[in-house]
Structures are given as C-alpha cells and as structure tokens.
Amino acid sequence: EVQLVQSGTEVKKPGESLKISCEGSGYSFSTYWITWVRQMPGKGLEWMGVIYPGDSDVTYSPYFQGQVTFSVDKSTNTAYLQWETLKASDTATYYCARHDRYYNNGSYFRLGYFDLWGRGTLVTVSS
Amino acid sequence: DIVMTQSPDSLSVSLGEKATINCKSSQSLLYASNYKNYLAWYQQKPGQPPKLLISWASTRQAGVPDRFSGSGSATDFTLTISSLQAEDVAVYYCQQCYFPPYTFGQGTSLEIK
Lengths: 127, 113
What we know:
By secondary structure, chain A is an all-beta fold. Helices cover 0% and strands 57% of the residues of chain A. The mean pLDDT of chain B is 98. Classes of the chains: A mainly beta, B mainly beta.
C-alpha cells in the first residue's frame, strides 16, 4: 500500500527540541518530493517547505525559514521535521505530503500539488 | 506570494442540491507555455488529513466521484458539487501550485442544511 506514516502525538514544553517523522512506503521514496504543511488548531493549511529525498535539497517557505529543519534518511525512507527550541505558537498538527511529479528527458520534475498525505502529527507545546 | 481567497467562508446546502465554492488568486495561475492552470482543490473531513480532489483546475483524481467538478481559468476558479451527499460535509481548500511558497485559500466549510 502506498502511504505516508507519521509519528505519534507529542506534548512538549517551551524551549524543548523535537523531531517528528514521516515514513513512506509502497513507492520509490527517494524520487518523490516531500512537503510539510502546518495546521494550527481550528485553522487552515500553511505550506512550510519541501525536501527531495534523493539529494536532500530543501526549499523552505520564507515564513518558516530558520524556525524548522527538514531532513531525510533514505535508508529508512523517512523524512523528518525538527525544532531546536519549541514555542507555544508551534502547537499544531503537522502533515507530510507527497508531491506529484512528471518525467521528462531522463529527469523527474516536481508538481506543486500533493497527492498523498500522512495522517498528521499533533504537537502540543505548553508549560 | 500568491494570495488565494475563497468564498464563501461557510456554506449550507440541502442534500441533493448543488454546492458552489469560489477561489480567486492574486495573480494568474495560467501558464502560457502549456495552457494549464496550476490550481488544486482538497477536501478535509473532520479529524482527517486533506485529500486531493482536483488538479490542473479541472482534472479529477482517480476515485473522486463525478459529482465533483472544477472549472475556471487564470485568476477565478470554482469547485462544484452537483448533488450534495452527506459524506461531502468537509472543509474545502483551493491551492495554487504555480510556484513556492505554495499557498492555500482560507477554506470553505460545507454543511448540510
């Protein structure tokens, strides 16, 4: 089955660090871009940025640049989203999602919509 | 950034009736080289992740019922549900897929009247 499986709920205190995960299965993980999306409680969807597992190339949204770090482990087909210093305002559900792609002249190209989503990781930051 | 604005914010429609959600982008999403509109629609049911319904403004994803249709071009787009079913209660989002940062509309909450 083609799926993205995300790690479980986290409850942390302000100032703590955190790394959540997103494991892909059932497809060629390293050749599809993975995006991260934030959804604050009761709010809409915010694109955080994208990583290409093949070479770990990353593009952050300007609004999240410097606030989070994306990484991947190709050996385990897992993408990660990391915070060094959590704030209460980081409380949200975080989704990983896969970009669709197309193939042309020997290369894959990223499309800007997301055809496969994880179920989300709820992160609560509270003292 | 491209700003995406949906209307209305919420919508109440009777079962079997038509639901229409609008989405406006602050700049054209029509790419002249391939004449494609870089606009997607998602459905998010309570407690679930978003689900891709439509890409390229009007291309339904496999398995999406044909009562869902997308239309529009350039800056103005519409998602139409031709005959509302109970399972269609959800929040619907449009998203520009043109270039990063990829941005979403604020969402339209659809309920049964």
